[in-house]
Amino acid sequence: MSFELRPYNPPYLKSEALRTAPDARMAAAPADGVAPDGFHAMSIFPEYFKIGGCWHLAEESRMDCVPVWEDGCLHVKEFRHLKKGDAVVCGRTENGEEGIYLHMNGFTETGRAAENFAFRQGRSRETSFSRDYDELRDLLRYERENGRIVWVLGPAFTFDSGARDAFSRLVAGGYVHALMAGNALATHDLEGAYLGTALGQNIYTQESVPNGHYHHLDTINRVRGCGSVKAFIKEQGIDDGIICSCEKHGVPYVLAGSIRDDGPLPCVIGDVYDAQDAMRAQVRTATTVICMATMLHSIAVGNMTPSYRVMPNGAVRQIYFYCVDISEFTVNKLSDRGSLAAKGIVTNVQDFIKQLAEGLGV
Amino acid sequence: MSFELRPYNPPYLKSEALRTAPDARMAAAPADGVAPDGFHAMSIFPEYFKIGGCWHLAEESRMDCVPVWEDGCLHVKEFRHLKKGDAVVCGRTENGEEGIYLHMNGFTETGRAAENFAFRQGRSRETSFSRDYDELRDLLRYERENGRIVWVLGPAFTFDSGARDAFSRLVAGGYVHALMAGNALATHDLEGAYLGTALGQNIYTQESVPNGHYHHLDTINRVRGCGSVKAFIKEQGIDDGIICSCEKHGVPYVLAGSIRDDGPLPCVIGDVYDAQDAMRAQVRTATTVICMATMLHSIAVGNMTPSYRVMPNGAVRQIYFYCVDISEFTVNKLSDRGSLAAKGIVTNVQDFIKQLAEGLGV
Amino acid sequence: MSFELRPYNPPYLKSEALRTAPDARMAAAPADGVAPDGFHAMSIFPEYFKIGGCWHLAEESRMDCVPVWEDGCLHVKEFRHLKKGDAVVCGRTENGEEGIYLHMNGFTETGRAAENFAFRQGRSRETSFSRDYDELRDLLRYERENGRIVWVLGPAFTFDSGARDAFSRLVAGGYVHALMAGNALATHDLEGAYLGTALGQNIYTQESVPNGHYHHLDTINRVRGCGSVKAFIKEQGIDDGIICSCEKHGVPYVLAGSIRDDGPLPCVIGDVYDAQDAMRAQVRTATTVICMATMLHSIAVGNMTPSYRVMPNGAVRQIYFYCVDISEFTVNKLSDRGSLAAKGIVTNVQDFIKQLAEGLGV
Amino acid sequence: MSFELRPYNPPYLKSEALRTAPDARMAAAPADGVAPDGFHAMSIFPEYFKIGGCWHLAEESRMDCVPVWEDGCLHVKEFRHLKKGDAVVCGRTENGEEGIYLHMNGFTETGRAAENFAFRQGRSRETSFSRDYDELRDLLRYERENGRIVWVLGPAFTFDSGARDAFSRLVAGGYVHALMAGNALATHDLEGAYLGTALGQNIYTQESVPNGHYHHLDTINRVRGCGSVKAFIKEQGIDDGIICSCEKHGVPYVLAGSIRDDGPLPCVIGDVYDAQDAMRAQVRTATTVICMATMLHSIAVGNMTPSYRVMPNGAVRQIYFYCVDISEFTVNKLSDRGSLAAKGIVTNVQDFIKQLAEGLGV
What we know:
4 copies of one chain form a homotetramer. By secondary structure, chain A is an alpha/beta fold.
């Protein structure tokens, strides 16, 4: 089986209703960081706005943010980035009557409504996941050549040596184009490379080593002493693990700070809104996003990932979004996004990643 | 790495304390199914009883059951199997002072107390499981030749085509010596073979088929019409799935009834105490037990599986016990058994079984 | 706020389609316990069958069982109860075209389709439950006088002294008309009354008592020695707990056996199909069913409880069905029943029952 | 029952071993934010350091941070707060041999080792919690007069009207001395006060209101327009909810930012390390900490809360720490802190808080 992108069915903008629709109303932001009353907020779907008699698709959308008309282009901005006077589109209908048209079925095959509904059902430990693995494997092979795969990792991901190795092989194999995580993931991973443990436990045998509870602190302190992860890797001759693989293969990674951090490592972004901006910078060019074992980061990235991307050549394609977690609660929280493209897999991420790497032959 | 049985360190019965210990006290069961006051109840560990001045090991033990001296031998009986007048050992100490000695460390390496403690810690989604997979693979290779592997399966196990196939290959490969499950597991599995679905959903694509909610009933009814699973398999030319593999390779399976059953299938044992007896008959000769995705059956089998087995040649060896489940609650409920041999793996059993089959090369 | 039964809107049987519909087809069961090909299986909704030109409502329905025409009446039978030659209704459409009409919206208010949909959504720990508590309190007050409330309890329910007392007060207060559980619930509860512990832990302080692991066995053995729970209560002067309250207030309880049972207690039904029959006997007259902290029993009872009951005076009313469990997986498994009447509450049952008792003023 | 503080048993510093112990070794921090090799890291227990021949207790401790001797006093600093040249205590033993003494049993009753062990066991949905409620009620009554109670709330806490009201009554009743949460909790709570919903669902009826998905954005935008929560409350005449209660009763609240935030509200601290500092400022004077329904914040606060506090009069007392969550995974993650004082309660926080308020009579 091989993967094929489902073509985008654009809305029929020449329909009577849309052709005769009024221009979208705009109002000026009354202050920095504040939207005008009646502002429109984006969804994850492609949305078109009639401005100057023409329909414009908002590129690089983001749910719950506002469309701003600037330099002949629609920018989707977080509230905190609004500037006083920004021209914000207003209106809360989506069928064109206010010059706003939300296109929900751009990637749906005709006559498959029933199936679509089925896909949106809750997923549980008892869902059959074999096809998901097969589809994901084919998708990643396609995306390695044609897209951009962004991974989001929870802190415990590197506690297991096999999972850590599998992910490192995915990086080396070209299946990872960006990584987003927190201080803890990077710390545990570097601890594994530096001292062979994670939180003081051997990552293969699970044996606790004497004074192992110092290991993550010693790791953090050494990296801080070196001034950067890169310098630490060089100084210590680190040669394995996720972060090291990213450094070796030039894969960008964004580490967002959190209130539970020790340290932190030098490259962690302490301001969460700066971190959001850095994450969204990676998401803007993503075509597939895979979140593993982190509710916080999964929701954060889910919130900033639309269901589509406008490619450099102007083509509109789907963004695939996976959430892998052992908890149905987390998986279903994400898949409420209502998109065909959002898929949940309920399992331990250790097994998920080892099986995926096996399937991809890395 | 290859597996080696840890040798049994028998207790030093010539120690002053044990040598001079009194005979164990016995009392007659006052009525059928009733033990005398002060009855002794078994643990999962090897227990020795002094009778006629000699220490006797209870073979084929079972937790929470009572030791009965009969025909010069210790039989461990469920309360319901006691007969009026049975000679039941009484006493609730375990250090020999009443002629009862519980030997907790028969399989422990000297000086490894700390490690043992670590093994008994709770396991969670964040535990590193790579070594467990490796050890289990080596164990199963050993047991295929030298032991007897009993599997316990929850009802949803066959909802996924890949997991179902992987388990069938394990059966064909000689890694399954007995199977214990319920009516639902067998029904779903036979529905997959007969109609390609489980509860009406395609076991690969997850697509619901029209009137699919009739599938399990049609399957049950057809099997009932045939009079037996074997006859159904023959009539319909069934050629895949777990139950079919067991039939084909002569692997015995015990299906215990439950109050949630439809049907049931002809071979399901409706009386739960008869079912317990049939299950224990399989456990008596088991050397490794693996429970997957069923709290009810896992606890039932856990309760009837001791930590050791006396082999036909008189040697005492360990019984290995695994519990694989996506819920920490279930896994930790089982691993409270306090035995080195009980290991929990927290994951989706679909991934577990596919990875295990892969590792075993079947 | 006070509770009012929503009136039943019967189907309009005089509509052209239903008036001209053919009689339902019947076929004889080919053997004991086997339905004819094409048998019809029941849902939880009211279903009408045209026989002899008249529409008949199946009373005392049960999902996944088959309608049998016998003595001028429709009996809904489990497969295992079919007798060779029974006249089984066949057909798998539900709109009348084969003389079978399923009436899904008998208790729906007109124009409330949207709300109904909302009610069927998955429930999670984050759902707001205050209204559910209020509604349930009002419902139970109504049912105490006008209905019949059946409770289903998981084994751990009596581990907490407060929960155990609260439930006992509900029994004394007239809010419990029947109880369904297993051997373990009754054993733990009687252990609490007899020895003050559950599985050897004090049910208030949680302290483990010496040799406490003998307590449940001593309890079981004593009850077995007495010959019955009633005799045990009398002999020991037991005066508290759930089972004792049921005995005192003449509330029938059904204890179904399972493969994990020790003992069992004398009144436990060992054959699960006999147990199903005993449970269904209670369900036939139930108007509200509340399942707490047991997946096995909740599914079993859920399967045998229709969404409606035909009262002695011929009126059709709704059956209310609640499932209370700390696991979303269990709660949502039950609420997939697709009925307005099935409600899930995600919490620890200890808190649920204490709060409910408080609200009811008992 | 009424609460009594367990007196602190200080270590016997005049023992031969401690009297003759050497001074603790110190080394200068080699750079800002970097500790010297061999730095000592703190635990949650009282730790004494021998400096200039005298033993000094570190006040205001924090796990995994380093003790710095400054101005004749021990300051426990996060790595990021170290200044080049800071005198950091070094050494990784805890028995005095390096001038460092960790006092683990300061609040333990003599001879109760076994019970203590029991308290540290994992807690599950099946643990009996009645005594915990009683103890907590008594503790809070004591702390209202004599201590300082800090609450930590997860984002979904105010989705339920009853829980929201109960907590507001606790604030009004004097049981809340500080609140820590995130942007989402405050947003949902203010949305409830402003528009009667949480994420667009009525917080009592659960009904979704039209365009309700705009409600949290409208709330955030309005507060941002007002410039502060206080101004918003005044402008809109807000009169209910958690945040409003805190404002009304002068209870300080710290809102820490996270990468999943919309908005954010004006008072949210965007830099997580500044947020940590603000949170620790509250924890420094806390005597009881209660975390509800948030893994992120619970771990963050758990990490910064020692097991003891030195009161203004020099007395050492215990800090009580509770973690209430519906997931055993979260609860047990916290209670691994190894302290008598850390207690987990496994339930839905809605029920927990309503029951607690009821018990306290507010």
